[in-house]
Write a structure and sequence with these properties.
229 residues, Arc Repressor Mutant, subunit A, 2 domains, binds calcium ion, single chain, alpha/beta, Rossmann fold
């Protein structure tokens, strides 16, 4: 994965700065939050590859952030940072849907190793790599760029395919029209956000049983779209 996006939720300024520098030097694109509420908001909409989440946070603690993210369908791998000796915390964290934990204080090299392991666990399909993905009666072969629905080939345009692949890679996350334009169209000068709506409508026609009552590409009113499947 090139330049994986990491969200670092940590309230200690010193540690936040140290980890940000180190992650950036290792090729990560780093975004930070210094309290649980901000972290939850960012993680819910972000499309991150991995989240580093401290347990003891102002406003909303790491456990509640983790639980709420999983409740919202966000499947991004989460590495929790626990205080020394909080064995119970580790168990609780994993039960709430965290993927791994690291006890403070830790060596940054250990954190890097854990993050790399978590990123390797992400299905290749979610990275847009050569693999397959299924939802409902739809099957996608990313390598061949083929989509089959109910056994019949579906004819997607290159843009529709790219849009669908992007939705799958960020499934569970709410994606704004502007973010989709930037990531799927890649324009610096934004064209009309209606472009996104037109392509989403086209995609729904092809992959949804009832495009007017979509099951997979959902409209999040006032925010954008979310893929669930
Ligand atoms: Ca803390």
């Amino acid at each position: 994965m090139i330049n994986p996006r990491v969200l670092l939720v940590e309230d200690e300024p010193g540690l936040r700065l140290t980890l940000t520098d180190r992650l950036a030097s290792e090729g990560y694109t780093v975004e930070t939050a210094s309290d649980g509420e901000t972290g939850l908001a960012s993680a819910s909409t972000g499309g991150y590859d991995v989240i580093v989440l401290d347990v003891m946070l102002p406003r909303i603690n790491g456990f509640d952030v983790c639980r709420e993210l999983r409740h919202r369908g966000v499947t991004t791998p989460i590495l929790m940072l626990t205080a020394r000796g909080q064995v119970v915390d580790k168990v609780v964290g994993l039960k709430l849907g965290a993927d791994d934990y690291l006890t403070k204080p830790f060596e940054t090299i250990e954190l890097m190793a854990r993050l790399e392991a978590l990123l390797r666990r992400v299905p290749a399909a979610a990275q847009g790599g050569g693999d397959r993905y299924r939802f409902g009666d739809v099957a996608i072969d990313f390598r061949k760029m083929e989509v089959v629905r109910g056994g019949a080939p579906v004819d997607l345009s290159a843009r529709e395919f790219k849009l669908l692949r992007h939705f799958i890679a960020h499934r569970g996350a709410t994606l704004s029209r502007d973010a989709l334009l930037a990531d799927v169209w890649g324009y610096d000068e934004m064209p009309l956000t209606r472009t996104v709506d037109v392509h989403v409508a086209g995609l729904r026609q092809k992959i949804e049983a009832n495009p007017k009552a979509p099951e997979y590409i959902l409209t999040v009113h006032g925010l954008g779209y979310k893929f669930v499947g």
